[in-house]
Amino acid sequence: MKLSILGCYSATPRTLNNTTSQVLEINNHMFLIDCGEGTQVQLRKHRIKFNRIKHIFISHLHGDHFFGLVGLVSTFRLLTREADLHIYGPKGIKEVVTLQMKLADSWTNYKLIFHELTSKESELIFEDDKVEVHTIPLNHRIYTNGYLFKEKEGPRKLKIHAVENAHINVAYYRKLTQGFDVENEHGILIKNDTVTEPGPSPKSYAFCSDTMYKEDIVPIIENTTVLYHESTFLNQHAHLAVKTKHSTAREAALIAQKAKVETLILGHYSTRYDSLEVFKDEAEEVFANVELAKDGKTFEF
Amino acid sequence: MKLSILGCYSATPRTLNNTTSQVLEINNHMFLIDCGEGTQVQLRKHRIKFNRIKHIFISHLHGDHFFGLVGLVSTFRLLTREADLHIYGPKGIKEVVTLQMKLADSWTNYKLIFHELTSKESELIFEDDKVEVHTIPLNHRIYTNGYLFKEKEGPRKLKIHAVENAHINVAYYRKLTQGFDVENEHGILIKNDTVTEPGPSPKSYAFCSDTMYKEDIVPIIENTTVLYHESTFLNQHAHLAVKTKHSTAREAALIAQKAKVETLILGHYSTRYDSLEVFKDEAEEVFANVELAKDGKTFEF
Questions:
Q1: Burial of B78 (0-12, 13-18, 19+ CB in 10 A)
Q2: CATH number 2.40.50.140 given to A2-154+200-300
Q3: Does the beta carbon of A70 lie under 8 angstroms from any beta carbon of chain B?
Q4: Which end of chain A is more exposed for a tag (fewer CB within 10 A), N or C?
Q5: What are the domain boundaries of chain A?
Q6: Which residue ranges of chain B lie beneath pLDDT 70?
């Protein structure tokens, strides 16, 4: 699982601060999460192949999370993309993208599939044989979802000596990795867990931005491998966090602690602060394993 | 008159190529012309004070000329702008900006005044005591206007010895600069042009992008000081210019020659070419005074 931070600042893009966008590589998928202005240039800087992006997840329709979307859709068209593109986001996202295509008289040749979200409950919105994606309803000034990306349980691993000693025909090995009990060469039923062990534990990533402190999300993101939680402010500006429906670094850490995640990544910083280290210090008073998102930084888990 | 090129490439923004946007300083106005994605960051790089921009002129609603507009409007709001902002552009521009403000539930505190254009004839769209702005109807895939910015005739300059010898009271000097005849201290009428001379000749700037070769614009832009004319292609790709309704460098030069402008600036280059110098070479076969727009370049006239 690899996470590339294209931008992690709030409000407005600046010369050295990009607004929210990130790419999650998980089980050969390349998911684009949020798409602030300038995302397409950030993708080029990261040398991420545009064609590998087939799914875009937009948290909410504030500009710093989606003003780069229509430009990306348009650039895909100019590069004669053919692959379908799925866009997940709040109701209204289809209208705003299609209005701009209409005004430009520039329709995509590739198929653009909008999945507009309206539910206030967590939903399963994408699933294949390896990954599933759920929404995480957040509490912000407008309708907002975070997204939970979960690897599915992979194939079980053969305990090779046990399998050989049990005299199981090689033809059944695949069934064993799928968790089935099988008959051996002497017609005896072999229980699966006597000859296999679980594969590597599935990983998961929860993206939560923008939101004020919301404990309701804890059951949804419990035991997640990595939680990205916005921390627009430090605790000294907790009143601003309440007013603007954002979180402090301390609150992000509280959510991480309650949800027993492995790693917390902070991001969506206000540009009022000179240093990011103070965000880490504040969060670490509550939760041990804290990382700082930075534009251009890549995390591997 | 000062022109700052924020971006001068066609189609899509890239790491080193910005799409169309430029700032024209003329008689203390700061006019923003077109607003491709990333324009707000380019403005910051140029250290152009956001508050000085009170008028934005959008040529047409293709993304490489206006996808940065809503982000700029939104950033002005976040920076608690108070001054009115006038936006000139094709019909539809108001709907697309206001739809995004509605979806974000983020309305500007400052006044946003849209001037939607629909005419196929050149129109006077802005005028004060020092400057006027006219549209230049262009021929592109969708409804498009160039813009002509013209300084008005400034005050006449006193020929100081002649004024003194004519025994004119100092109180009348201002009337003289305004072109009036005045009586001298002996009650004799002094003809204005015997004691004054014209002030510096008014300058003008014509922005023509995007358009295919269109001779109809020549009478509108005749004798312009500076003409920016798009040259997306070289003559070797003239068939593409016709197909996509763009111009070649040679065609831009032909327009400059016929309109007898002083200087031609080329821009809106396709990124297919390795060097810009070939654009200059091609245009100079037709017209002598050719400059190349480059991102970050400033011209003073």
A1: middle
A2: no
A3: yes
A4: C
A5: 2-154+200-300, 157-197
A6: none
